């Protein structure tokens, strides 16, 4: 996947991790922008030096979303354990040499987070965290940015991004009509909020054609 990332981005990553000390890189962007794909491409380009800790691991459980009356807005900023996410990032910054830290992961096939699924070893210099709300400036979310060494905003053509989302929702069980409705009524509402944070990023990442 190294060829997916232009040299200027790779060189920036190498500079960021040159001294071997723990760094945390945030990848932010609208749903379907390709954050997970970019995160994996970076891991592949820096073998043994990077690991992904996604924000999506902090989705609230479906039962809790139902209790709160937020199930129809799953993916909105208030459907995550934002305080828990900030706490994990803080631990990752201060990780001891004899400590393995475990992070949660979100499994789309069951639409639920799984605790303790990602082991982060203390000798990994680059932690990549990707998600929608890394640059929000209210609530617990405002505690995220100070814990990140650098944040990249991931850009992609809007029509392509929406089609990716429709395909994703269909792949995990929705019919086409329901998928398009979810994209327009939920994903795009979130995308507008996320786009308003773009200027706070350190770098605008554009996928090369």
From TrEMBL:
An example molecular function term from Gene Ontology annotations: kinase activity
Alphabetical keyword list: Kinase, Transferase
SUPFAM superfamilies registered for this protein in UniProt: P-loop containing nucleoside triphosphate hydrolases
Keyword field contains Transferase: yes
Highest rank taxon of the organism: Bacteria
Record flagged with keyword Zinc: no
Cross-referenced InterPro entries: P-loop_NTPase
Stated name of the protein: Nucleoside/nucleotide kinase family protein
Organism: Paraburkholderia caffeinilytica
């Amino acid at each position: 996947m190294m060829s997916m990332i232009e040299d200027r981005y790779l060189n920036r990553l190498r500079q960021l991790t040159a001294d071997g000390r723990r760094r945390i890189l945030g990848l932010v962007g609208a749903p379907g922008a390709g954050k997970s794909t970019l995160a994996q491409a970076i891991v592949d380009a820096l073998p043994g030096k990077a690991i992904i800790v996604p924000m999506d691991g902090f989705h609230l459980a479906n039962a809790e979303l139902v209790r709160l009356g937020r199930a129809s807005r799953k993916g909105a900023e208030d459907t995550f354990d934002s305080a828990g996410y900030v706490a994990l990032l803080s631990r990752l910054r201060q990780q001891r040499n004899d400590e393995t830290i475990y992070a949660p992961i979100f499994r789309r096939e069951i639409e639920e987070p799984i605790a303790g699924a990602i082991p982060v070893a203390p000798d990994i210099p680059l932690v990549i965290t990707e998600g929608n709300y890394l640059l929000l400036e209210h609530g617990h979310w405002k505690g995220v940015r100070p814990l990140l060494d650098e944040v990249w905003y991931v850009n992609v053509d809007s029509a392509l991004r929406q089609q990716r989302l429709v395909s994703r929702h269909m792949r995990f069980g929705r019919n086409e009509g329901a998928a398009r409705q979810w994209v327009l009524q939920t994903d795009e509402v979130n995308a507008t909020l996320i786009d308003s944070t773009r200027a706070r990023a350190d770098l605008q990442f554009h996928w090369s054609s």
